[in-house]
Design brief:
The protein has one domain. The protein is flat, with a radius of gyration of 22 Å. Helix content is 89%, strand content 0%.
Length: 113
């Protein structure tokens, strides 16, 4: 999970979502109260679940470690094949806009000639 969270694409997308969430909460009092209630509910469920799941996780720890290692190797290979994962969202959007603009300009030039 940490390895996925540290991918530039994922990290920047989470930052953007977090900023939008915080901004929306600050701008709209009714949304803030609903979000605060939802956050409290999620926190309570997480705490209750953590205490129940911990004994199971302790038992399954060797299997979880093996799965984690396998997933880590898979993510490394995915990162090699998809360099896009190492770019922030803003850069991907910018590159996509440039590509689309270029293709539209090429099409316009082809049609006009």
């Amino acid at each position: 999970v940490n390895q996925v969270a540290n991918l530039t694409l994922i990290s920047s997308a989470c930052d953007m979502a977090s900023t939008a969430y915080a901004s929306t909460k600050e701008s709209h009092p009714y949304v803030r109260s609903m979000c605060d209630a939802a956050e409290k509910g999620v926190k309570s469920v997480t705490e209750a679940t953590a205490s129940c799941v911990q004994p199971v996780l302790t038992t399954l720890e060797p299997h979880v470690a093996a799965a984690s290692e396998y997933a880590s190797k898979g993510l490394d290979k995915l990162g090699e094949k998809l360099p896009l994962l190492q770019k922030p969202v803003e850069r991907i959007i910018s590159d996509t806009k440039e590509l689309v603009s270029s293709k539209v300009a090429d099409a316009r030039d082809a049609v006009s000639s």
